[in-house]
Amino acid sequence: MGYSLAVILDKKRLEGIKGTGLESKVTDMFGGAIQALIMDVPDEPYAKRILAEFPGARIDARNFLEEVPVAFKKAVYEEIRRLKSMGPEVLDAVFEKMAEIKELAAQEQEYLPPPEVD
Amino acid sequence: MEIKIKTPLPHGGRLVDRVVRNPELGKKMAKGCPAYDIKPNLYNGMPVRNVYREIMSICYGFFSPVEGSMTQAEVERVLKERRLLNNWIFPYPLVFDISEEDYKKLGVSVGDRLLLRLKGQPFAVLDIEEIYEIDPQEIATRTFGTPENNPEVVRRAFDTKHPGYVIYLSLNRIVLAGKYTIINEPRLRPPFDRFWYPPAKSREEFKRRGWTTVINHQTRNVPHVGHEALLRNAAFTGDTKPCDGILVNCIVGAKRLGDYPDEAIVEAHEMVNLAGYVKPQRHMVTMLLWDMRYGNPLESLLHGIVRQNMGCTHHMFGRDHAAVGDYYDSYATQILWEKGIPSFGFPAPPNAVEYGLLIRPQNMAEFWYCPHCQEVTYSENCNHLDEIQRFSGSFIRSLLSEGLFPPPVIMRPEVYKVVVKWWKQFGYPFNNRKYLTEREKELEVDLAPMDI
């Protein structure tokens, strides 16, 4: 069984994938209020490993992998951009940096900078 | 045929009130008693429950007709039939547990009165009627059910990933049973103080507002637009007209890592009316002190009891009500309120059995966003199944963590700003270890010094 992983694209990230051929893969969510790249994540070995590495991660009611660390999502975005792909090789590349991601994730558990809002 | 619906009697017929409001009388009651400092139950070093919240909810009548820590026979009956010894239905065992070491130190026996201190001050007394030993593992398993014994709704065995299950696992083995009495009335700290409406007070407030039909919205969350659609649409039920009032009753207590801080939850719900999405005249935000068990159908039973005691005529129940993970059927609560769950002692719904509830269920399916309809719509109406987008609390939490302003179609901007207000205060938007640990030191109340 497979799951999905949504990498949300803000303006900066949208700009970052220009010219990579990934633009056509951008999905509109909530009537275009949010843009995302939605990756397929096979259960074995990918989803299982993600759930095992990050105890807070979960599968939500939509079958999406959510509540993964910000550092993980950031790494997924970077690898998508670098490899110009949304295939399993993206997650393979992310897993290679797992130690570093987990270190950042542990820091995230202590503090996340609040956004500036009016 | 009676068309108009009236305010229901409390569960058990009368509201429990075990609060001594005269401090001199309180001192007198506690004089010469051995004293015990209440401490939280820990699991893997994390606080998962504080019995003080149960004492508050019992003594102020939220859990009427329960009056104290249950005897062994009562725990057994609750686990077997979900009924108290006086026959009224009740879902969970509630006990005052202490370690064997503390028990030996205290040297108390049946007939003694124990003074319970909170934050170093006298808080309540427990009149000991019975002392017995429990097996926390057994209580935990029997409390929530198993796929073998409760095949109608339990889908898989409970384990230590379930936050309610670990509450029961964390219990100490010795139980002191007996009635509680609060002798030094705590003061709720801001922001909780303005949401504190014990049942007698909420009933008075309903009367003052001229509300007869009131529907309750249960929450442990900051509201997204899907929650708001649920509460607004469910409130169209009533009698000859939609419900007069919508009562939001927020669960305040130890919760799991990753949930929102309680301060943000209560204020975010209040913001729904302050920002005018539901008129404040029709919407009232309150709280319940309770370390949530996440028991889906069983939790809904407790919710029915609490909200009937508060004076509500209706209770809305959605999919995965008070659930975490996939331990129960997604519609387990609705199954209970539609036809009952025989293996949990309900051959019929809780309001169709003797000594049952008077509150009416309003079982709702789902609200989702449909780009075709261009609105948040009810799943039983909208048929654009290939286009719809489901709300997901987990997705919204991920969005927030990344520092993105959620679009108004998902979360009201005013509500988001409340989240950010508390994010700035705690340095984190959700419950992390630091928040949960600090929180258990400060609690939601302060107590005035009392010399005994």
Rg over CA atoms of chain A: 14 Å
Q: Tell me the fraction of residues in β-strands of chain A, as a range.
A: 15-25%
Q: Count the strands of chain B? A: 18
Specify the structural class of chain B.
Answer: alpha/beta
Q: State the domain count of chain A.
A: 1
Give the CATH H-level superfamily of the largest domain in chain B: HUPs
CATH topology of the largest domain in chain B: Rossmann fold
Which residue ranges of chain A are poorly predicted, with pLDDT under 50 across at least 5 consecutive positions?
A: none
Large-scale geometry of chain A = globular
Protein described:
The complex is a heterodimer of chains A (118) and B (452). By secondary structure, chain A is an alpha+beta fold. Chain A is 45% helix and 21% strand. Chain A has five helices and five strands, in the order βαββαββααα. In chain A, the strands form two sheets. A three-stranded antiparallel sheet of chain A has the order 1-3-2. A two-stranded antiparallel sheet of chain A has the order 4-5. In chain A, a hairpin with a 5-residue loop joins strand 4 (58-59) and strand 5 (65-66). Chain A is globular. The model of chain A has no long low-confidence stretch (mean pLDDT 93). With 452 residues, chain B is an alpha/beta fold. Chain B folds into two domains: 23-188, Sulfate adenylyltransferase (Roll), CATH 3.10.400; 192-439, Rossmann fold (3-Layer(aba) Sandwich). In chain B, 31% of the residues lie in helices and 19% in strands. Chain B contains 14 helices and 18 strands. Chain B has helices spanning 23-30, 51-59, 72-81, 100-106, 136-144, 163-169, 199-209, 225-234, 262-274, 296-310, 332-338, 393-401, 413-426, 433-442; strands spanning 35-37, 41-43, 46-49, 68-69, 96-98, 113-118, 121-133, 174-182, 187-188, 214-219, 245-252, 283-289, 314-317, 360-363, 367-370, 375-378, 389-390, 445-446. In chain B, the strands form five sheets. In chain B, strands 1, 4, 5, 6, 7 and 8 form a six-stranded mixed sheet that branches. In chain B, strand 13 (314-317), helix 11 (332-338) and strand 14 (360-363) form a beta-alpha-beta unit. The longest helix of chain B is centred in the C-terminal third of the chain and has 15 residues, at 296-310. Chain B starts with 22 loop residues before the first helix and ends in a 6-residue tail after the last strand. The model of chain B has no long low-confidence stretch (mean pLDDT 96). The chains are: A alpha+beta (118), B alpha/beta (452). At the A-B interface, helix 5 of A face strand 17, helix 12 and helix 13 of B.
